[in-house]
């Protein structure tokens, strides 16, 4: 069993970096706060006696050699970046739990026969730069590194420049250079189902698929007073139509389908000017890839209808499409048997959030451990997981990882 | 007749201050660019030999004494502030035309028996700080100066601090200290009706009334993936509902009613976060105050419906209510007879935009001259008035003002 006190201390240390006034975290990918928490992570890797490796995309690895020089590597990871005003557990708990596992091995002088690596993936959140799970996607070969370097935030800063600026564009190749035995990731559920089932821990069997995109409507900025209603092409009216449809579409598609417009930007954004240009995003998710495809087709059709009704132009782009993933039985079983041995009440579930494990599942066998999210809240300062639940999940991860690392 | 070449030169000089790349103007009230154009205005008042007076609210006057020491003052004015990306003519043409009138009197050594003042009003646009027509409203006694000093922009900067910062919090009382004979204002129409009627110049008989307001919806920021559709309180969905209603309401009220949501701000504004808080503005206008009142009641009711449908909280505030105004016959007649004597084709109309003349009409007899807006475009870099039309309107103003200043 791991050290509960140290787990709490490590969680508190990281949560102090990028802390917001209302108890949340503002640690956007490749920001100054991200640099600071990455520096903290390097220090912890050093304390744990791991060999550090930073790749060209900023993914940062710590490696512990196994007793068998030919054995394949067990990889544990998650992310330290956050939403603009996100919670303290999202991502960070997975990193801290992995650290806690290797610190416990070190303390007890246990060397499994498989080597162990722990990794902090670059830009999991996808808030500042899209797509989400960008670093793991590059590493797993789902995206071309040159394309991802050029992705820009709302101010036009690129990933490549920001990696350089914070000093985390490393020298190691951003791709698997050895054989991996398995990938495990601990994360908070970010939804209500473990709490509803009164479970101690979640055994994750897969991840939903998703489509993200961006629509820009271009109408005509004009004076909101003397311009008659029938002379208007109001970009915000078209965008509002789409927002209403995105609220409706999931109910027409599937039981588990969700759809959201999370981002909207208006130009010029003045009380007495008809909006000339409006940009919105869409996001739809479902365990069934065919449903995701239908959601994509539907939202594009609705955006076209909205544009034509209001007489505005439209451009759209799908910024991310992730297929749904089913994890490997042997990894799911390792998590399940760890939870069972520890006598935790567990619940099997499909993740409604995307995770780096999505991409890792194409490189090696993967699975995840979920910690209970109270009230199901996440991407908000109100995100909360009790220390009991943090501990249960971290213990499950450690025991599952130990199983996979020991033949 | 005035000097057409000088009119063009003055227009070009002011348009260089705060010029944007796409040919527009960014000269928000009390910004650095506003300070610069105010400095330019002071210089021109000086050249024209006028006595300068800056009041406590930054309204800036130049005074030319008349031959009769007991005669009441004829006031000519408009504004030099602009929208975030506005046009070159909106406001500025009225200031330049007033300057051109006094420069012409000076050149010809004509001294009317009435004194003449020209004025640049603070914050006519109402974009950075609400309400619009703020400086003239304070001066005319429609608003309390202490309240208006405290109005803040989106970054929390107040009018009082910004007036201090740019050095335009003057010492003169912000209220009429003498008797006024009349107020005349030249402005671009900002709508399509003069162009449609093929008129050279507009004779303005009144101004529509309006209501402006702000609604804030507060839902729950949460993760857009694992949060089921029926667990959501999405502030942007409620806002979208209201935007759709604002597009519809004018058609249910009156032929001349217009309604607009020009501003929208989302928090946290991230592709994968359910919007927790959204703020929108409304604006409705109509020549009939009873219709404006109905629009206000309707939009509040719709916002309440939208909030209850989506399960979000709402707060609203009416930030501005201006009654419609009918100008005094003797001022309308002065403008009409000036246009007729100059053999311009004129059209009488009610202004769909608000103007400082709204407030001045409560202090003295007022009217306005409109210049043709090509394509009716305004509050946009595409705003355009030909030099012929600028000249026709400025000439009409000069002749009407001369009539009123000479008994
Ligand atoms: N787990 C998580 O919040 N990932 C970010 C990408 C997503 O929106 O699912
Ligand atoms: N004329 C003008 O654009 N005034 C600003 C206030 C309004 O929106 O009418």
UniProtKB/TrEMBL annotation, chains A, B:
Pfam families: M20_dimer, Peptidase_M20. Residues 206-307 form the Peptidase M20 dimerisation domain. The keyword Glycoprotein does not apply. GO terms for molecular function: hydrolase activity, acting on carbon-nitrogen (but not peptide) bonds, in linear amidines. The keyword Mitochondrion does not apply. InterPro entries: Amidase_Cbmase (IPR010158), Bact_exopeptidase_dim_dom (IPR036264), Peptidase_M20 (IPR002933), Peptidase_M20_dimer (IPR011650). Keywords: Hydrolase. It comes from the Archaea. This is Zn-dependent hydrolase. It comes from Natrarchaeobius chitinivorans.
